Amino acid sequence: MIAWLFNLDAERELAAPRSYQPRRAIADVVAKLRPVLGSLLAPGDGIVLPDDPPGRFRGFRGRAWCPTPSAQRRLREVGAELSPAPPVEVLRAVNDRAFSAALGQTLPGACFVRDERELQEAVASFPAGRRLLLKRAFSFAGKGRRPVAAGTLDEGALAWARASFKSGGVQVEPFVERLLDLGMHGFLAADGTVTFGVPTVQQIAKDGAWRGSTRAEPGLLDAGEEASLKAEGARVAQALRAAGYHGPFGIDAFRYREAGAVIFNPRTEINARYSMGWALAMRDRRPDRG
Prior knowledge:
Blueprint: E1 2-5, H1 10-15, H2 25-32, H3 34-37, E2 46-47, E3 61-64, H4 69-77, E4 81-82, H5 88-95, H6 97-102, E5 111-113, H7 116-124, E6 131-136, E7 145-149, H8 155-165, E8 170-174, E9 177-188, E10 194-196, E11 200-204, E12 210-215, H9 223-242, E13 247-258, E14 261-271, H10 278-282
Parallel strand pairs: 1-2, 1-3, 3-4
Antiparallel strand pairs: 5-8, 6-7, 6-8, 9-10, 9-11, 9-13, 11-12, 13-14
């Protein structure tokens, strides 16, 4: 039996591990998403709640959405036996957008910048007026994003960027017309064995927040897109292992239109943790329960 702790704001802790404090509001989000998160559970499993007393899950194995220090402490408090997990330094490294950027940018002109000068140069490098999207190093559920226009950043955007640089860099990328959002999910065992699920179709709101997932129907992706997505999944798994990570992971991808052409982007970000479509993609391929 597994005691699950859904620290859905793990990126907040990874961005500022010393000052982070768990928020009770996350429990409300977990309750709202219970039908989705419950797909990770098997009969007899339980969900750790803020008011659970010490020892509530003695005899259970503990597993977190992302095994951050606060999540591991809470699992110990309720008596769960901790599952093996990478150190926080590894979690922070592989969930930073810089990690994905180091594998190569996948949109024209995109770059990862680490200070205000680099940001200004990057934004100015695009055609005037081109819509751009800035993303903080650690963000989730559509948060930590700011749309801007190419050219000179206004004071509001600069203030946002300065705050962002306190916890890492900023990803700069062109805004594109997304036609189909996808996910590729897997599990990387400590011995390097990788298990992949099937691709999923993701419903994403305009603000970048996840709204739902379905398993991709055969033939939805053409042969080239499917091969590209699988190859990128394997490449990401290899990079995660080299960085010392093991556990659940996923990559987001999408099909988009640019200058009249339909193009496939096999990796827009990496999530080195569980994600909303993970259980749906993996279904009965569950090495995390072993």
